[in-house]
Amino acid sequence: MAPTVLVSNAPVAMRIDIVTLFPEMFTSFLDGSLLGSARKAGLIDIRVTNFRDFAAGAHRQVDDRPYGGGPGMLLMPEPVVSCVEAVQREAAPGRVVMLTPGGRRLDQPLVEDLACQDRLVLVCGRYEGFDARVCEALAAEEISIGDYVLSGGEVAAMVVVEAVTRLVPGVLGDEESARQDSFSGVERLVEGPQYTRPREFRGLEVPEILLSGDHGRIARWRHEQAVAATGRRDLGSPRSFPVQSPAPVHRSGS
Ligand code: ADE
Fold first, then answer.
1. Which residues of the chain fall below pLDDT 70?
2. Smaller CB count within 10 Å for the chain: N or C?
């Protein structure tokens, strides 16, 4: 059976392949505003392939019980590895990234590094994860989007796609806005507060300096605000990050 491919091919700046058991999860995401336009404009080529299409047998089984016992099911190596190998043969091979909770934590420097590649292959796990030989066989790297566990790698792959593609030249339209993003630039500061109309909202005023027209002073003020916002964040200030304590736990039983 032919692999499931959701999008078209065009000569582009970057190609991203997504390998998943749930290709339909990506349909509206890839057709959405920025990504949809970038794909139509031929700036990025994103293809989604279902690795169940590479599974053997009438049932196209992709998972099995772990050796040594334990809860849940693991993804068998053959369907995932065969799928990635087939996808890699379609063009010059890309950097293979498996989305796993135990991988290297995604941050802006890693996003920038990924955005320099001509091609990425993102592999999404499900169930209790992959057989360990998948990573070895594919010479893949593992990336996590944070220290929490999702039900699969699909949402994590979307995070990677969105963060990376906005750095591909032409995707944002305004390259300056990517340069001014939080975590970008030499200092990697988070952005300070920004304001738009109206000048007064429910008694809250726009800082006077932003209305002054003095671009030098405004730039200095913005930099100070960014430094302060970064400091508050690094200290985990409860003011900037209200958290519920203790964390809510929902129990169905006793
Ligand atoms: N799959 C499950 N949890 C994940 C996480 N936190 N990051 C990336 N992939 C995952």
1. 1-11, 176, 236-254
2. C
